[in-house]
Amino acid sequence: MVEKELESKDRIINVSRILFAEKGFEGATIRDIATAADVNVASVNYYFSSKERLFEEVLRAGFQDCSREVTKIMIPGTKLEDGLVQMFRYHLDHRHDLLSMFKLLMSTQEKQRFMPEESQDFGPPGGKCVAEAIIRELGKAPKEEDLHWALKTLFSHVTHTAILYTCCFRDRPIPFTSDEDIENSIRRLCRVVLADLK
């Protein structure tokens, strides 16, 4: 019984991620979600109590999934630029999830509905591991403001480049957008950021 409940709950979350990304928070109805997940409306309300709570759970699950993968990539001993290149490749391999999460976040234009507890101090998923890698490579902790600037700069470049590469660059003859070019630009930015922090 517990296993079946978990299966239904996970199915609702997975379907909701797709529908919220396609239709936005306002456009995706509980009835749409229940139908797509092959459960009744009462089940959605039972597990999540409201559409807002369901949306929060979808964001939390996406954040945790990505954070778990970044943590696997950024294990101690991994050079920061190698880890960031691996993050870029991970985003390309999971482009549907990356685009869905950005669409979900963009669907909350009127207010920030949710911020996972894990993101409070280090922002993006896996931010803490990347911050630790920066500190290891520097051999010391930079000022907090500088560390957050470095995280925002590196994560923005990696994730936004992955989104653009997925949507726009893949099949177009745009200079300096081969896999090797983009990975080199990630490595270069990493070196620039580390040099600035020293």
Task: Give the tags.
198 residues, mainly alpha, 9 helices
Structure characterization notes:
With 198 residues, the chain is mainly α. It has one domain. It contains nine helices and no strands. Helix 5 packs across helix 6 and helix 5 crosses helix 9. It starts with a helix and ends with a helix. The model has no long low-confidence stretch (mean pLDDT 85).
Show the helix and strand layout.
Elements: H1 2-27, H2 30-37, H3 41-48, H4 51-73, H5 80-93, H6 95-106, H7 127-138, H8 144-169, H9 179-197
Helix pairs in contact: 1-2, 1-4, 1-6, 2-3, 3-4, 5-6, 5-8, 5-9, 7-8, 8-9
**Would you identify the regions where 5 or more consecutive residues have pLDDT less than 50?**
none
Q: Please report the number of helical segments.
A: 9
Radius of gyration: 19 Å
* Spatial separation of the terminal alpha carbons: 56 Å
- Structural category is mainly alpha
Number of domains: 1
Overall 3D form:
globular
Q: What's the mean pLDDT score? A: 85
How much strand? under 5%
- Residues in helix, %: over 70%
The profile of the biggest β sheet is: none
| Total strand segments | 0
Taken in chain order, the helices and strands follow as HHHHHHHHH
